[in-house]
Design goal:
Elements: H1 2-8, H2 15-41, H3 48-58, H4 71-93, H5 100-113, H6 116-144, H7 151-158, H8 164-189, H9 197-232, H10 244-272, H11 274-291, H12 293-324
Helix pairs in contact: 2-4, 2-8, 2-9, 4-6, 6-8, 7-9, 8-9
Length: about 325
């Protein structure tokens, strides 16, 4: 009796409550992140250009002069999410059944109580256990290859990299675990309780189910689109998708290189036509001589002088020939 009174007067530790609050906070961050992340990934349903636009903006391409973005931004984002993911997983493991005996007791109680909230918690245990492995693989891939995001690169990873089974399991687990977790947070902390707690609970349950169906639908559709793109791109694995801006830039570079080639061709043509260019000045000089009257008179006088000298030379040779005769 004395020992009981001593124990009852001890101050209870708030450390478990703080851990519980930290688990709820990290779960809220990860749940909202999953919503946004799946919406971004599902942009592939609208086309490769839409997904390329989203992925480049996530790389802060609007801050880059070249428009190629900064993959290091994806690295730091993945690092932060990975850290929160590990913290949340470690906090959640402390509530898992750690032995087969505890698991059997839990299953017996679930069958006896037949309560939906307990069943939802068990779904979170199973999906959380699977996510600890498949989610870690995905986040590690983003850490080691932050630039490998794009319509073709992502599709190649899913199909040619044989990652589609992992992503399918990850999709189901993350949608169920995240949305059930957000629903249980609302119930646990009394968010959106309203005046009628029972009615609010039913409303949140309906909203949870609809959100799960919505994200599973767009997630599966996005995975199918990536799969089709990856199958059609098998012979060009590793090739990046060229957006309209990059394609226009490549066209501009091609147009800039064409004048250089044209200039080289013109220089070669000038070299071939060089003899004609040498003869051209002589023809020009003759034309100028023909058009100038003074030059014509001088030319005629020179010709007459040459004729006179030829005639005198002929006359001088005639007496010599007569003397010989």
């Amino acid at each position: 009796m004395d020992s009981y009174s001593i124990e009852s007067h001890k101050k209870k530790s708030r450390f478990p409550a703080r851990l519980d609050f930290l688990q709820s906070a990290t779960g809220l961050v990860l749940g909202v992140f999953v919503w946004v992340h799946l919406l971004f990934d599902s942009s592939i349903i609208l086309g490769k250009g839409a997904y390329h636009f989203v992925s480049k903006n996530l790389e802060l391409a609007f801050l880059s002069e070249t428009g190629h973005g900064f993959p290091i931004a994806v690295f730091f984002a993945a690092l932060i999410i990975f850290t929160i993911f590990i913290i949340h997983a470690l906090l959640g493991v402390r509530k898992f059944p750690i032995s087969w005996k505890q698991h059997r007791i839990l299953r017996d109680q679930m069958q006896m109580l037949d309560h939906s909230e307990t069943s939802l918690w068990y779904v979170q245990v199973v999906t959380g256990f699977l996510m600890f492995f498949v989610g870690s693989v995905h986040l590690y891939t983003m850490l080691t290859n932050p630039a490998g995001i794009g319509p073709y690169l992502s599709a190649d990873r899913i199909v040619s990299g044989n990652m589609w089974p992992l992503y399918l399991v990850l999709l189901v687990c993350v949608v169920l675990h995240g949305n059930i977790g957000l629903y249980r947070l609302c119930m646990k902390w009394g968010w959106f309780a309203g005046k009628d707690a029972r009615k609010s609970r039913q409303t949140l349950q309906k909203l949870k189910n609809r959100v799960i169906v919505f994200y599973l639908t767009i997630g599966v559709l996005a995975l199918l689109v990536f799969t089709v793109i990856g199958i059609n791109h098998r012979d060009k694995v590793g090739e990046r998708y060229m957006g309209h801006a990059m394609a226009a830039e490549g066209t501009q570079d091609l147009e800039e290189s064409q004048p250089v080639e044209s200039a080289q061709e013109m220089e070669a043509a000038e070299v071939v036509e060089a003899p004609d260019a040498v003869e051209a000045p002589e023809a020009i000089e003759e034309a100028e001589v023909a058009e100038d009257p003074d030059v014509l008179e001088e030319a005629e006088a020179a010709e007459e002088a040459e004729d006179l000298e030829a005639a005198e030379a002929l006359e001088e040779t005639q007496p010599v020939e007569q003397s010989h005769e």
